[in-house]
Amino acid sequence: MNNNVYILDDRALIYINGPDAKNFLQNLISNDINKVSDSSSCFASLFTPQGKFLYEFIIVKHKSGYFIDCEKSQSEEIFKQLNLYKIRAKIEILNLSNEFVVASFGYEKYLTITGSKDILGFTFKYREDPILLDPRNKYLGARLIINLEKLYLSLKKLNLKNDKIQNYHNHSYKLGIVPKNLNKLKNKLFGIECNFEELNGIDFKKGCYVGQENTARIKLKNKLSKRLLPVEIIDGKLYENETIYHNNVEIGKVLINEDYPFALIKYLNENFNKDFVFKSKNGTLKIFIPEWLKI
To answer: Cα separation of 142 and 184, whole Å?
Structure first.
């Protein structure tokens, strides 16, 4: 069993509390805030009014409010966006990234901890701090949100050994889940094209939220023809926003080109097949479909 733990110092923690916190989030996010409790966390996103992707995060109940576990590179913009929507809502929005940290460890290790359950998003307390099974995919493992002052003592008690964050990023990428550089996706594709339905990040039964109308229309009218998929570079180099071809037919566009590349792919096009080799202006590549994505 793997006892490695990854200190995700590229993540930030925003905290929202106050009497209106629940309704405030419910009117904004793509998922149903009613799923979030002391024993359950969820994955969600903020879209533009047109349904385009802006930000993604994991929401965890903490005391009287909610942690927003987000990529640090997006945290300042998320903080500002939430404050723009705040208006007269009776809430407090705090950036607690200097006080709390996110640590991730493996699924098998998670199952050995007393109190854990094999349920996506299941959340329980370990020495008063939340541990949750990643609500997107159980093979992303568990997350511990903890005060920095308590971090290393808890890791020692859990018999967890610090490992390089790059290994977590590699694992996420191999699963087909974007590990970093989320800003490169902003406003470039619809949220539903990010595979958020399959990653349990969109609730089609909840009421209105920002971007809900287009998101529901794409789903209900079966208009989803493009998806965000991981790219494997065979030769050459990829550049952001460049076109991907097969038989001189455009089948996609590179959105994230560095480290862990992803592209928006016309996966229903007859010129797309996961076994094909594709071309860009300066590279040769393959596109793989994650096992959890049944297309």
So the answer is: 26
